[in-house]
Amino acid sequence: MAELKFSKTxxxxxxxxxxxxxxxxxxxxxELGDIVFxxxxxxxxxxxxxxxxxxxxxxxxxxxLYSPLSGETxxxxxxxxxxxxxxxxxxxxxxxxxxxxxxxLGDLKDLMDEAAYNSxxxxxxx
Length: 126
Known about the structure:
Blueprint: E1 4-6, E2 11-16, E3 19-24, H1 26-32, E4 35-39, E5 46-47, E6 52-58, E7 62-66, E8 71-76, H2 79-82, H3 86-89, E9 98-102, H4 114-124
């Protein structure tokens, strides 16, 4: 997971050139429980750093999804419409949510590496 960066709202980011793939963390999917529905933006829609880009619903609750970066949506995981459980089964791979063209690579500096994210999760539990 070394190439991943993490947000305080429990999204992960994998940078691929000037694009980023975004999903929710393993921790987030465990907290949510069984995911039954995912709403994502359409290709071409703009997302703003820290702005809402979708919703995930589980058997426990509905939760907003927040983009760790600003940019334009260039891909959305259409598999999640038919198989939202992929987020539970493979949150860092098959359960990815959106791919964006990054508007400002400088926004990456605000994200955490894996060690910092794990410390953040541990501090939230206290």
